[in-house]
Design a protein that fits this description.
The chain is of the alpha/beta class. It is about 20% helix and about 30% strand. It is built from 3 helices and 11 strands, in the order E-H-E-E-E-E-E-H-E-E-E-E-E-H. Strands 1, 2, 6, 7, 8, 9, 10 and 11 form an 8-stranded mixed sheet that branches. A 3-stranded mixed sheet has the order 4-3-5, with no helix packed on it. A hairpin with a 2-residue loop joins strand 9 and strand 10.
């Protein structure tokens, strides 16, 4: 099993990136265990390898970090559980698509602990929840809100970066970007859905469900 690390308070993004890169290198050399790192960040935006400048609608609002993970723009901030996964994908079948699906299923299993049905949508990255209580989109499509984002990078078959789950972030902070380049749908959190869930509750659920998804 990987080593689990939970860092209290807010962790700077550059500090997190440096730690992940060093740990991934050590894992690749066989000098360190796999690692799941649970953090929160101060308010910031990150730009993945597919980020489009037009999707950064308020560039002066928070610091913007250019990163080499997959995906587009995302927001990180207090109240959001960021889960950095430093896992040896070479030892887990060398199937990147399957690995990403495992991350998705891990998020879904975690949300299920709180009776929240997370779903995957073709062409839309991340995990979504339906919002039947909200008005549908203009074309009649049911409203869906994003509750978790996924973006990873591999180096020497070791993953880093990972997933983020909205527990109780300030949802207005997402308005400075087009999250993951997706328009029309919105963003939600466990607390926004009316659930009095704490960060500690989510951390426990992540631990309990990890073994259901990953060998």
């Amino acid at each position: 099993m990987p080593e689990w690390i939970t860092t209290p308070g807010l962790t700077g993004y550059d500090e997190a990136t440096a730690f992940m890169e060093a740990r991934a290198e050590a894992i690749a050399r066989g000098e360190a265990r796999e690692c799941i790192w649970l953090v929160e960040h101060p308010p910031l935006y990150t730009a993945g390898t597919s980020a489009k400048p037009a999707d950064l609608t308020d560039p002066d609002r928070f610091p913007v970090h250019v990163t080499k993970r997959g995906g587009q723009y995302t927001y990180h901030g207090p109240g959001q559980r960021v889960v950095y996964v430093m896992l040896d994908v070479a030892q887990r079948g060398r199937d990147v698509r399957h690995f990403v699906e495992q991350l998705e299923h891990w998020v879904i299993a975690t949300l299920d602990r709180f009776n929240v049905t997370g779903e995957i949508r073709c062409g839309r990255v991340g995990v979504w929840v339906t919002r039947p209580e909200k008005p549908p989109l203009p074309d009649g499509t049911p409203r869906e809100d994003k509750i978790a984002a996924i973006g990873i990078r591999l180096r020497k078959w070791v993953s880093f970066h990972g997933i983020s789950i909205n527990v109780e972030p300030d949802l207005d902070h997402f308005s400075g970007i087009v999250p993951c380049g997706i328009t029309g749908h919105g963003v939600t959190s466990l607390v926004d859905l009316g659930l009095p869930v704490t960060m500690e509750d989510v951390d426990m659920a992540l631990r309990q469900t990890f073994g259901q998804v990953f060998d």
